[in-house]
Amino acid sequence: MKIKVLFVCLGNICRSPLAEGIFKHMVKLRNLTSYIQADSAGTASYHIGEPPYYLSLQVAENHGIRLEHRAQQLKRQHLDEYDYILVMDEMNLRDVLRLAGKASYKAKIMKMRQFDDQQSSQDVEDPYGYKLPIFEACYQILHESCANFLDYLIQKHSLGS
Questions:
Q1: Which candidate, 48, 26, 53, places its Cα nearest to that of 37?
Q2: pLDDT per position as a tens digit, 94-133
Q3: Other Cβ atoms within 10 Å of 139 Cβ, number
Q4: Taking the C-alpha atoms of 56, 109, 35 and 41 in order, what is their torsion angle to the nearest 10 degrees?
Q5: Residues above pLDDT 70, as percent of the chain
Q6: Mean pLDDT in residue range 59-81
Q7: Which residues are marked as active site?
Q8: For residue 75, is pLDDT > 90?
Q9: Residue 151 three-state SS
Q10: 36-42 and 109-111 as β-strands: parallel, antiparallel, unpaired?
Q11: Which residues contact 135 (CB under 8 A, 6 or more apart)?
């Protein structure tokens, strides 16, 4: 049985597909694709079916990562299907918790930055509408958080041993 991870932001074209791509790349590099799978979704329906934003694609490509995601909206069934749901900011957290309703889902819903080196639980700010350097800063935050989250999964689930 695979561990299923879902990254969530607002529109599913900037932060969450970038996190998904970074995480999948790390999982592949550590030969854990048979244990872990990942996807992403947005809390809003603005961009359903669209590819990632061009600057998310560019920053990922600059780091040797290819994003192949198409935007989708978070649905209640995702809460049943995924073991871990990582949200990018406080607004996403509120939206996902509202959708979840029952307490049994709450343990699997976490903020992405609780896995950064400062354990900050701050927001991963939305880079939409900004230039490439802001997307690069977003990439760096997501890279650090994804690496630490992957280490957390490896330890918690005794993977690769």
A1: 26
A2: 999 999 987 778 889 999 999 998 877 799 999 999 999 9
A3: 23
A4: -40
A5: 99
A6: 96
A7: 9, 15, 126
A8: yes
A9: helix
A10: unpaired
A11: 14, 18, 55, 56, 58, 59, 127
- Tokens for 156, please give them: 């918690």
At residue 161 the predicted structure's pLDDT band, cuts being 50, 70 and 90, is low
Residue 14 to residue 18: CA distance in whole angstroms: 6
Tokens of 136: 């690069």
**Other beta carbons less than 10 A from residue 41's beta carbon:** 23
The residues, ordered by sequence, that sit 6+ positions from 112 with a Cβ below 8 Å of its Cβ are 7, 19, 86, 87, 88, 124, 141, 142, 145, 149
3-state secondary structure (DSSP) of residue 84: strand
pLDDT, mean of residues 35-54: 97
Cα–Cα distances in angstroms (integers) from residue 136 to residues 36, 56, 58, 90, 154, in the given order: 26, 9, 9, 21, 27
